[in-house]
Amino acid sequence: MRIVFLGDIVGRSGRQVVKDYLPEVIEKYKPDFIIANGENAAGGFGITEEICKDLYSYGIDVITTGNHVWDQKGITEYIDKDPNLLKPYNFAEGSPGLGFNIYETKNKSKIAVINIMGNLFMRSCDNAFFKIEEVLGHIDKQKPNSIFLDFHAEATSEKMAMGHHLDGRVTAVIGTHTHVPTSDTMILENGTAYQTDAGMCGDYNSVIGTEKEGFVGKFATQDNKKVRLKPAMGEGTLCGVVIDTNTENILANRIEQIKLGGQIGLWMAGHSKFKNIMYRKGAQDKKRASLFSKISKEITVAAKLGAPDPEQNARLRSAIQLAKANSFPKDNIERAIKKSSEKDHINYDQMRYEGFGPGGTSIIVEALTDNKNRTASNVRTAFQKFGGSLGETGSVSHAFSHYGYVRYDKESLEVSEEEFFNKAIDSGADDCLLMKIFLRGYVNQMSYQIFIIFFKKKLESQMLRGFNGSQPVK
Ligand SMILES: [Fe+2]
Ligand SMILES: [Fe+2]
């Protein structure tokens, strides 16, 4: 079995580097279980329910913590509801949350994860060496296949002592809390995997993950004022270990350090900075390709349903606007329009599904597809997944009207507002709205925009351009 452990995730940089690089770790190592220390995940101090959920969505199975576990509001209530979020076991008796637990891994074996805090130079808590015996007493009865300890402590001596104390009795003892990875990755004499500190997942152009200027200033000026220093926000490095366990007993076969990305990422075989960039770029390119194919489809369908000239086809005009906003190449726009007149191009159908969401809400889904059966089944699954159901045609559509709008910038009007509204009514508008909105791309720049609203069918048939001498925005 293979376990991946990540050191203290610090602030946004830490969360980002885990999000960016954990997929690569999973692809390369194919771990059966992933544990991460999340005690500094929320702005350097503590963790929240939302962050726990994000970390689980990246593939982390269990989150351990440390002295910062209670720093965020609401966590004392949340930890009792989440058996995968651990606090140090030797905290005061009666404090909420679990200090150890047993989980099933992807390969169906049992792993015990323990979180304990050190006593040297740490806030007071029960003796770590006594308490670990208590935990092992509980765990041994349940016969797990492996036992992992996150020993959250400051002193290297205390951590090494714990490693040797448990050598041969647990799978791994890995230290956290100092936020600096040590290079003493090893299998101890009796088979326990060990590293004094896994290091943090966070920005290393910092002092232990905190903005360096503030921290250096504290030392340089001997300033004892208690000020909360902000976490460093630069590119993070992901730090952790991969441990292979023995199938016959709870001991470890192999331990390897992982350091990826950012300031101290290693140039290991298959883990060069170039590869990291390539991996990220690959993911971005994939997203872009899927967006481009959607835009291209929309242009072809819009051109097919109406005229191939954007001047006379509002849907095509807005598809082209979307294409331009996303740097979709001009040649591809022309090709997509041309495709609409080709006989053998794939036929896309526009489908409309009706259904009910949670609490009986009415939902209409519009989809563009080259395979109606596949899309119907995907839409049905999506409804079911979120507690809704797909309905018959006509089951909710009576509650909806199909509107479209043309937007004008108020500044561009060449006639008075009243005259403009009169003309809108003459051309069949169903409503006119004057709204103050933020202009995209500008901070604090407001603009008055006029939305002329039409029933969709009417909109298609109206000659709206030049209707007042000014150009519609959209
Ligand atoms: Fe920490
Ligand atoms: Fe800590």
How does the SSE layout of this entry go?
Blueprint: E1 2-6, H1 11-29, E2 33-37, H2 49-57, E3 62-64, H3 75-79, E4 100-104, E5 110-117, H4 128-140, E6 146-152, H5 156-166, E7 172-176, E8 186-187, E9 193-195, H6 212-221, E10 238-245, E11 252-260, H7 273-305, H8 314-325, H9 330-339, E12 349-356, E13 362-369, H10 372-385, E14 389-390, E15 403-409, H11 417-426, E16 431-438, E17 446-455, H12 456-461
Parallel strand pairs: 1-2, 2-3, 5-6, 6-7, 7-9
Antiparallel strand pairs: 1-10, 4-5, 8-9, 10-11, 12-13, 12-14, 15-17, 16-17
Helix pairs in contact: 7-8, 7-9
Bound molecules: fe (ii) ion (FE2) (2 copies).
Any overview of this molecule?
The longest helix has 33 residues, at 273-305. The two termini are 57 Å apart. The chain has 474 residues and is α/β, with parallel strands linked by helices. The protein has four domains: 2-268, Metallo-dependent phosphatases (Purple Acid Phosphatase, chain A, domain 2), CATH 3.60.21; 283-346, Arc Repressor Mutant, subunit A; 348-400, Alpha-Beta Plaits (2-Layer Sandwich), CATH 3.30.70.980; 403-469, Alpha-Beta Plaits (2-Layer Sandwich), CATH 3.30.70. The chain is elongated and about 85 Å long. α7 (273-305) runs antiparallel to α8 (314-325) and α7 (273-305) packs across α9. It has helices at residues 11-29, 49-57, 75-79, 128-140, 156-166, 212-221, 273-305, 314-325, 330-339, 372-385, 417-426, 456-461; strands at residues 2-6, 33-37, 62-64, 100-104, 110-117, 146-152, 172-176, 186-187, 193-195, 238-245, 252-260, 349-356, 362-369, 389-390, 403-409, 431-438, 446-455. It contains twelve helices and 17 strands. The strands form four sheets. It has a six-stranded mixed sheet with strand order 4-5-6-7-9-8, with helices on one face. Strands 3-2-1-10-11 form a five-stranded mixed sheet. The protein has a three-stranded antiparallel sheet with strand order 13-12-14. 32% of the residues lie in helices and 22% in strands. Residues 267-271 have low confidence and may be disordered. β8 (186-187) and β9 form a beta hairpin. The protein binds fe (ii) ion (2 copies).
